[in-house]
Write a structure and sequence with these properties.
By secondary structure, the chain is an all-alpha fold. The protein has one domain. 72% of the residues lie in helices and 0% in strands. The termini are far apart.
Length: 111
């Protein structure tokens, strides 16, 4: 019994990510996805910004981890919804407004 408790505890501790995901990380991830989605909907070049976001995401949510699968899916879903909304709703922000917001956006930075 002691061995099984110790063994299960060791597995759980080993499976924990090295860095805990914070609410600020999740907010930054979601807002970055939404901004990129709107920009893509306006045909704004997002190559530089998306590269930085990808590097940041890989550091916060390591490739192959459950966090990467979960939060990567959420990121993609948010980006897609923002892009679709931008291109198909009359009340979406103008592309000039999106471009100004995109240029002023505080993109996540890798440590």
């Amino acid at each position: 019994m002691r061995f099984s408790v110790w063994f299960c505890s060791a597995i759980l501790l080993a499976a924990r990510p090295a860095f805990a995901v914070t609410e600020a990380d999740l907010d930054k991830m979601q807002s970055s996805a939404a901004m990129l989605g709107q920009a893509i909907g306006c045909k704004i070049d997002v190559k530089s910004a998306s590269g930085g976001v990808n590097r940041w995401m890989d550091e916060k949510f390591p490739v192959g981890s459950a966090d990467n699968d979960n939060y990567g899916f959420r990121f993609g879903e948010t980006l897609q919804r923002a892009q679709e909304y931008q291109t198909s709703h009359a009340d979406a922000d103008s592309c000039a407004k999106v471009k100004a917001a995109f240029d002023a956006f505080d993109w996540p930075k890798s440590p």
